[in-house]
Structure prediction request, 453 residues.
Amino acid sequence: MKINYDQVNGKNLKIFEKVYDYIIIGSGPAGVSFYKNIISKKKKSKILIIEDGDYHKKKYKKVFSKHLKIKLKSRAFTVGGSSTIWSNISSYFEEFEMKSRWNNEKKNLWPLKYKSLIAEYKKVDKKFNFFFDELKKKKFKIPFEVRQFIGSIYPLNFRKFIDYKEIDLIYNCKICSIDENSKLTRAYTDRDKQYFSAKKMIVCCGGIESINLIKNSINQKKIKNIQNKNIVGKFFMDHPKFNLGYLQYPRVDLIKKFELTKKKNNIQYYGISLRKNFQKKFNLLNSYVRFEKSSGKIVKLLSKINVPILKNIIKNKISYKVRVFCEMKPNINNLVTLKKKKTYVKLRLSKNDKRTINFLSSEIKKYFSHNPKFEKNLKINIARNKIEDASHHMGGLRYSNNNKLSNVDRNLKIRGLKNIYVCSSAVFPTSGSVNPTMTICALSSRLANFLSK
Ligand SMILES: Cc1cc2nc3c(=O)[nH]c(=O)nc-3n(C[C@H](O)[C@H](O)[C@H](O)COP(=O)(O)OP(=O)(O)OC[C@H]3O[C@@H](n4cnc5c(N)ncnc54)[C@H](O)[C@@H]3O)c2cc1C
Prediction:
């Protein structure tokens, strides 16, 4: 059943009396994949999805940000969430990205083993096709780490997986706070004393909004038993991205193997990052670059003609745009706060983040150019680059075995609460450098597996 909250009045108030097995707040990839996973295991589950947005118009909400700016269109409030506007590019976390690689530590910061994450990737790939099976760990003989990325030209909108015979979905309904007593969980709307009840609740509101909902509930003196309130919103991360510039003397035959290409309905490329042992030695991260061919119209036209002399001329005219995508070191000073219903984000690159970019940039120039000394179009000094938000909002509700430095335990349950769980990139303890959605869905599959037992 599909219900518009704007039209809920005296006649259809019965929905408030119903006790669901699960309330899912948010209908983006996290919410939809959790519901699909749980219903495939427990067919008779009574599920309610609550969604702030509607079907026709996408809402965008401003975030006030200091240092790195969060774009207005970095999250969509609508049925299907940000999958209605995303690019659908995927790749996998590397095992070392789950670890702390700073101060010579080597601890896994994620409360799950790499093997389990890979097993979940395989499961969600079958259901939602994140291209995991196609992502190949090819060995290239170059002094860099190389990882493949695949996306589709027509991105997948998670709205299409919703079957209204299986669940109830109420839209135009913002949840302002949540709570639980010994038996039930409750999701409160902005209307006086109206709430929905369920045995268990899953917060799937996206990276920033999941934090806001928890913070709002604490401010309203609900979820009183939540542990480590002081770190809610802290350790926030993103994958800042920017154009490093153009390689004017590229080693075309080499770069060709890694550049962004379009094939049938897919795009694919390889991300190039610093060697693992190099990262370890200098306390650097796994930020990567992508090469995008950039040539004028005439060169593009001539490249279609198969004449050897022409080919040589064209080769000298091709340049490559170099784009950087950063991993961020988790930092307690990067945070999301809520003041008078406004969201504020403070997000700044750490020294390690900046050093990584500088190292990576100069290594790329040295290896991928014929003429490194004459590459004037690469802005190695990051102060001169316009760094953007990648719309990948992570951290703020840390997921860890460390019961002092986290809000969410290894089963994604909020610490101190009995029946409220979070499934969102807000739980990521490290950001890694790949697009987050396949990992979010892997967590939802793991959660469904846990709850169905
Ligand atoms: C332009 C763009 C490009 C992107 N490209 C990629 C990409 O190539 N690959 C990739 O992996 N990721 C990409 N992303 C990120 C990707 O969209 C997110 O990782 C993914 O959508 C997160 O899923 P989610 O369900 O956790 O959150 P969302 O998709 O944000 O869904 C959350 C839902 O919760 C609802 N909600 C929030 N608060 C409340 C509340 N209080 N009450 C009720 N409902 C609420 C929202 O309306 C929304 O529908 C991109 C994002 C953008 C914006």
